[in-house]
């Protein structure tokens, strides 16, 4: 396709989410090539990034997930090489990848997010349970796709949950459980796409149910009243703006039984697999997968 030049689709990488990234990247690559884009696969786990400059790539579609791809490091390398790339820049990518600091920015901006505690080896486990109540979600601060995450339903499970999460990250969060509906809201440039309601078996939206089973139900449209969904879309847009996000991304949130929203996390390089939520939402908005990939790519930029 004229005007887009030689394009590298970055996928794979070295993070714990490599398998998901491979699925995302292959789907994006096939869509771009079908649209006539001069697009090529590029796995940073197998080739040094400086090759992008040497081989004349003019823009990059980032389909990497997790650390080493979604955390600002690849974005910084591309900035130095002067190659435009999709998604958020260095600062917003690094910030959104850090669930703790994301929460601090949201709280400072008056945006709702569940209460939390930082867990360490010397944590008073009983005090955390007393403060946050049960259940509690324990998760690494710098991982996605539910990697290393545990839903703790009894006080004596908390330390084991921390030990599991600590295998993935030195920084581990315990987050209060909000009983309600799980929603996700993709955004594309300055537009929030239709919300998706996630209904997982027994409320367990884990790694397996996200990517490898058909047991999870996704409702899009989500079933909320239009005025209520509009309020949530505005909240999601603000949550992205205060983090400095751009291009595209996806915010995850919980709507409590009382109708109050709580922001959970921001994804700056969301999944693009057959089970992924951004393509699902975009389709409801009238944007098929190929057109979605093109629009994201057209928004590639520096700075």
Automatic annotation (TrEMBL):
NCBIfam families: D_ala_D_alaTIGR, PRK01372.1. Its cofactor is Mn(2+); Mg(2+). InterPro entries: ATP-grasp, ATP_grasp_subdomain_1, D-Ala_lig_Van_CS, D_ala_D_ala, Dala_Dala_lig_C, Dala_Dala_lig_N, PreATP-grasp_dom_sf. Signal peptide: none annotated. The gene is ddl. Binds 2 magnesium or manganese ions per subunit. PANTHER family: D-ALANINE--D-ALANINE LIGASE, D-ALANINE--D-ALANINE LIGASE B. GO terms for biological process: cell wall organization; peptidoglycan biosynthetic process; regulation of cell shape. Cell wall formation. Belongs to the D-alanine--D-alanine ligase family. PROSITE patterns: ATP_GRASP, DALA_DALA_LIGASE_1, DALA_DALA_LIGASE_2. It catalyses: 2 D-alanine + ATP = D-alanyl-D-alanine + ADP + phosphate + H(+). Mg(2+) 2 binds at residues 265, 267. Its EC number is 6.3.2.4. The active site is at 17, 145, 276. The lineage of its organism: Bacteria, Pseudomonadati, Pseudomonadota, Betaproteobacteria, Rhodocyclales. GO terms for cellular component: cytosol. Mg(2+) 1 binds at residues 252, 265. Transmembrane segments: none annotated. This is D-alanine--D-alanine ligase. GO terms for molecular function: ATP binding; D-alanine-D-alanine ligase activity; metal ion binding. It holds the Pfam family Dala_Dala_lig_C.
